[in-house]
Amino acid sequence: MKTNRLPFIDFARGIVMVVMAWDHVSGFWHQLHHGGEGVLGRAPPFPNLTWFLERFVSHWCAPSFIFLAGTVLALSTARRLAGGGSQTEITVHIIKRGLALLILEALLVSPAFDLPSLYFGVIACIGVCFIIFSIARRLPMPAILVASLFTVLNHSFLSLDLIPNSTPLGWYLRVILHEPSFDGWPYVGLYPIIPWIGVMGLGWCFGKVITRLYEAGRRRLVAPIAATGAASILLFAVIRWLNGYGNLLPRNGGTLIAWLYVSKYPPSVAFLLWALGGMCLFLATGMLLEGGPRFESGLTGAVSQIGRTPLFFYLTHLWLYRMRLPGVSEPPFYLEMWQTFIFWLVGLVVLWRLSVWYSGVKSRHPGSILRYI
User: Fold this and answer.
1) Cα dihedral across residues 117, 120, 126, 131: positive or negative
2) For 360, which DSSP code?
3) pLDDT for 216
4) SS3 sequence, 66-90?
5) Number of compact structural domains in the chain
6) So what's the pLDDT on residue 212?
7) Which structural domain, as residue segments, surrounds residue 360?
8) According to the model, what pLDDT value does residue 161 have?
9) Which region, left, alpha or beta, applies to residue 253 given φ > 0 means left and ψ of -120 to 50 means alpha?
């Protein structure tokens, strides 16, 4: 394989980045927007179905982001090995990437959400998972697949009671590993390592499979990927109906909100089935569309461009949509939903053009620090 740039992955990642931007702009400018689904077993109520759904659509984002981070890591590792890179060089590069993400989380991401620098968010989680995978990637792929599946399917049974939470260090360690919480300020976090490294591991295995099969016949992959997505969503419905295993937040009634209200922090099996099932459908759609005469232009081209610069987009979109200085937690006024929608669309156009510019700068300076962003 000559490149780790696969258009259908950029397309799928671009979709979830665009949806993620909606979630954040709504969070910055709406009093009624909130999250926290599943933190310490809590289920904050939503005022109505509309507000619930405008948050629910964002559930595709973090799982897809972390899964595809593992996929792209596998692809880039294969490319570096094919180019003559040594295992030691690759390990050091991955560790540097992980450390860069931890620094960016503390310096740019946490202040955007008015959170302390110790906040352990999605970027920090990916950073630590990268550092772990700098070594764990040397394991056979079947071992990574089995370990990842076991983690995803069984992390809800894990107890960290052996780590005392009476001290800041113990509390923070439990938050980072498996118990997201905002109760022990400033030792807070939402994306614990243990469940999410399983998701990244699944993405890594997908990347290894794609490395071998993509060029041989990508069209033959469309049906299996789409079928996996549809089966995941169907299994989500079964698990919610049974209302037992896989539901960290049990279904409380028969309303649409009750069926769809699942735990994100930490991610339940039901949550991941829904989110990764949708991601598979996005991937299959991108695979069907790529190679077409207009795929790299128009709307699909813009979405793919955003997907090619995910970290740059993530860092930039937070401060663009926040529209206020660090430390100013409340906006000067609040927007209606339709106003927020327009703001979101205008911002996406700006972010798309910035992504085009950044891609050009990065390609002209391949050996610079920009390779970590």
Assistant:
1) positive
2) H
3) 65
4) HHHHHHHHHHHHHHHHHCCCCHHHH
5) 1
6) 79
7) 7-372
8) 93
9) left
Structural Rg of the chain based on CA atoms: 20
Residue linked to tokens 């302390």: 116
The answer to the question of residue 131 being in a domain is: yes
Token readout for 290 is: 């790529």
Q: Is 1 contained in some domain?
A: no
H helix runs in the chain, sequence order: 7-29, 49-56, 61-82, 87-104, 110-112, 122-136, 141-154, 168-177, 193-217, 219-242, 256-260, 269-289, 298-308, 310-322, 337-364
Q: Name residue 155's amino acid.
A: H
Residue ranges in the chain modelled with pLDDT below 50: 1-3
Residue with tokens 């629910």: 56
Structure token digits, residue 66: 């972390």
pLDDT tens-digit readout, 8-53: 999 999 999 999 999 999 999 998 898 999 998 999 999 999 999 9
The rounded distance, in Å, linking the Cα atoms of 155 and 275 is: 17
Assigned domain for 133 exists: yes
Quote the CA–CA distance of 242 and 238 in Å, as a whole number: 6
Has residue 62 been placed in a domain? yes
CA distances from 276 to 78, 208, 253 (A): 24, 18, 25
Q: What is the pLDDT of residue 12?
A: 97
Rounded Cα–Cα distance for residues 264 and 270 (Å): 9
Compute CA distances 114 → 27, 34, 118, 154, 286, whole Å: 12, 15, 12, 33, 36
Query: Phi and psi dihedrals of 181, rounded to 5?
Result: -165, 150
Residue with token string 């052996």: 162
